[in-house]
Amino acid sequence: MTTDYLLEVRDLKKHFSSGGKLINRTAPSVKAVDGVSFSISSGETLGLVGESGCGKSTTGRMLMRLINPTAGSIHFQGKELASLSLNDMRLMRKDIQMIFQDPYASLNPRQRVGRIIEEPMIVHGMGDKSYRKKRVQELLEVVGLNSYHAKRYPHQFSGGQRQRIGIARALAVEPKLIIADEPVSALDVSIQSQVLNLLEDLQSEFDLTFLFIAHDLSVVRHISDRVGVMYLGRIVEMADRDALYEEPLHPYTQALLSSVPVPDPEYQQEQIELSGDVPNPADPPSGCPFHTRCPHVMDVCRSVVPEYKEEKAGHNVACHLYDDKHMAM
């Protein structure tokens, strides 16, 4: 493995057993993540987008080993996380923290905010009680709250304030990588921009690296350096932010971007409407997983899985539209 990246993920898979048996055969497993590969450089923000159920959050939770992968490798600073023992992985979480989607469910309602932020420092043996108390106060101010908020409970805060508390908790142990799992989707639009700007400021101040998971493409464009698009457990396109938004290659990405509202009443954009629903991950279609909804479907799409390859410099895509061999047929 190369050492140029802070994180390298290769062919990561998570198949959940659906349990039970069908007549004369075992029930099929749900392929929530089915061969995902990507890398993140130090100081970079990689956005991961897609419809609900495409495997984004499952991918993030596997990186934290909150759920164990079925197959694949996760290299963080040269260490293979997928094979670490639970105790060793617990130590690694000092460098890898997570911001969760729901800013209320992720905070213990029985603990005061000061204790919530202090707890990761206790777990990882950071400093004495006075050091931790001082750091809690500093972190609250860093995320835009006040030091006296440490004595309050989560229910005494708004949704945006609770998410700031979650961010402070993630920062407490001085991590190198933060996995942000839809951190603004549960917030009002006016609050979303405040939290996104806060994350950008913190990244610059603390030299953080982000994996930013979301389904809102306008949010991802605001904060990401590169963007990966997931569909049915696989990454179908990945490129630098500007390249992906200005010239998307995959039909799925094109459809997603066509549905993003543009705040200009004079701007006319043709919206691409996809037919059908997302296939059942327990019974995915053969060939290209997107072929059941693709407006450009060809015969080869129904039987052959497209190769995920670099079509342009730094721009990868998995689509037969860019396969000269099949286009010539």
Could you estimate the helical fraction of the residues in percent? 25-40%
Low-confidence stretches: none
Helix/sheet category: alpha/beta
Q: List the total number of helices.
A: 10
In CATH, what is the homologous superfamily of the largest domain? P-loop containing nucleotide triphosphate hydrolases
* Average pLDDT for all residues: 90
Written account of the structure:
With 329 residues, the protein is α/β, with parallel strands linked by helices. It folds into two domains: 186 residues, 3-Layer(aba) Sandwich (Rossmann fold); 69 residues, no CATH class. It is built from ten helices and 14 strands. The strands form three sheets. An eight-stranded mixed beta sheet has the order 8-9-10-5-11-12-14-13, sandwiched between helices. A four-stranded antiparallel beta sheet has the order 4-1-6-7, with helices on one face. The protein has a two-stranded antiparallel ribbon with strand order 2-3. Strand 11 and strand 12 form a beta hairpin. The protein is globular, with a radius of gyration of 21 Å. The mean pLDDT is 90.
Keywords:
329 residues, alpha/beta, Rossmann fold
Topology:
Blueprint (H helix, E strand, L loop, with lengths): L6 E10 L4 E2 L2 E2 L3 E11 L4 E5 L6 H8 L7 E6 L2 E2 L5 H7 L3 E4 L13 H11 L5 H14 L16 H13 L5 E5 L7 H18 L2 E6 L2 H7 L2 E6 L2 E7 H6 L4 H8 L49 E5 L2 E4 L5 H4 L2
Helix pairs in contact: 3-4, 3-5, 4-5, 5-6
What's this model, at a glance?
With about 325 residues, the chain is an alpha/beta fold. Helix content is about 30%, strand content about 25%.
